[in-house]
């Protein structure tokens, strides 16, 4: 029996994205999630809650086509986040909104998003979807962690980590199946490919579907840059990942015709890492091969390697970096 058919109770995506209106242009989070081994609240949740807030301040005739955001500091799961929307511009074809996420009086995140009246009659093109196994042929990520935990000769601490990861993935509102890890394309590009979908959701309208897609767009993303470098969590030394954290995130939407309750293929690759940073690009396809969104992200990707020691120790750090 598959993990999905025999899973424990998982969080609903609606709960993860829900915000409450507290004033005109002002919203507050109701649920925040700190991932296992995470430095702060899951970035995809902050993005999606900010987007829900912005979408509530836009005429429904306009459809989200892009968002650009910066993570300024980590968010604590113990204090609600307040989202302040600024209605920057209302045009005939495009409208613009900015969102500031505020926690304990500090701005922790900023987002600029743009909405347009769709122009479906315009010409279009897109890159084809890679040839990958169907979702039914791919292993659920929680099943993979269970399998890894059952290997013989593992240290009890490693078994505990795998078991915890399996439990976290099972509780997640997003199901993930591994379609291809460290897949090498014909041009030599190393790709990481995952089937993703929201578990057990009704047919929400397009604006909310885009909020769900924004949530899952941050999953596994910057970690693909660390994987290309061969960095692993745990231990110490130059092959160990000492820090990974998102700096900025962008999504461009090119379709209103998709449903996050159906499997979406997320194709990721990293063209460059260096100076303790990495950039990743992604493409999100429907199961029938239509490219619906393009993503990009830069993040901190640090190995456990010591650089030159600084001499000025008088000023304490003021942010997560």
TrEMBL record:
An example Gene Ontology molecular-function term: fatty acyl-CoA hydrolase activity
Signal peptide annotation: none
UniProt lineage: Eukaryota, Fungi, Dikarya, Basidiomycota, Agaricomycotina
Ranges where the Acyl-CoA thioesterase-like C-terminal domain occurs: 182-301
GO cellular component: peroxisomal matrix
Protein name: Thioesterase/thiol ester dehydrase-isomerase
Family named by the database record: Belongs to the C/M/P thioester hydrolase family.
InterPro entries per record: ACOT8-like_C, Acyl-CoA_hotdog, Acyl_CoA_thio, HotDog_dom_sf, TesB_ACOT8-like_N
Chain ranges passing through the membrane: none
Keyword terms: Hydrolase
GO annotation terms (biological process): acyl-CoA metabolic process; fatty acid catabolic process
SUPFAM superfamilies, per the entry: Thioesterase/thiol ester dehydrase-isomerase
Acyl-CoA thioesterase-like N-terminal HotDog domain: residues covered: 37-116
Pfam families: 4HBT_3 (PF13622), 4HBT_3C (PF20789)
Presence of the UniProt keyword Ribonucleoprotein in the record: no
């Amino acid at each position: 029996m598959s993990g999905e058919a025999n899973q424990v109770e998982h969080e609903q995506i609606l709960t993860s994205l829900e915000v409450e209106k507290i004033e005109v242009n002002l919203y507050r989070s109701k649920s925040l999630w700190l991932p296992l081994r995470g430095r702060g609240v899951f970035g995809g949740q902050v993005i999606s809650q900010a987007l829900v807030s912005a979408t509530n301040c836009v005429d429904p005739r306009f459809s989200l086509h892009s968002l650009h955001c910066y993570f300024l500091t980590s968010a604590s799961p113990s204090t609600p986040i307040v989202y302040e929307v600024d209605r920057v511009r209302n045009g005939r074809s495009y409208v613009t909104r900015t969102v500031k996420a505020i926690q304990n009086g500090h701005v922790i995140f900023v987002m600029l998003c743009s909405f347009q009246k769709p122009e479906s009659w315009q010409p279009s093109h897109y890159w084809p979807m890679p040839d990958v196994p169907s979702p039914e042929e791919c292993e659920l990520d929680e099943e993979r962690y269970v399998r890894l935990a059952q290997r013989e000769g593992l240290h009890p601490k490693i078994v505990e980590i795998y078991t915890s990861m399996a439990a976290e993935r099972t509780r997640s509102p997003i199901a993930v199946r591994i379609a291809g890890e460290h897949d090498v394309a014909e041009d030599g590009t190393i790709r990481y490919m995952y089937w993703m979908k929201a578990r057990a959701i009704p047919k929400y309208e397009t604006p909310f579907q885009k909020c769900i897609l924004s949530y899952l767009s941050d999953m596994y993303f910057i970690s693909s840059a660390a994987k290309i470098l061969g960095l692993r969590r745990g231990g110490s030394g130059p092959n160990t990942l000492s820090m990974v954290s998102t700096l900025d995130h962008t999504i461009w939407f090119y379709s209103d015709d998709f449903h996050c309750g159906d499997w979406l293929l997320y194709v990721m690759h990293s063209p460059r890492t260096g100076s303790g940073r990495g950039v990743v690009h992604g493409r999100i396809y429907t199961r029938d091969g239509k490219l619906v969104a393009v993503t990009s992200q830069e993040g901190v990707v640090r190995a456990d390697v010591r650089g030159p020691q600084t001499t000025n120790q008088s000023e304490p750090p003021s942010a997560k970096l």
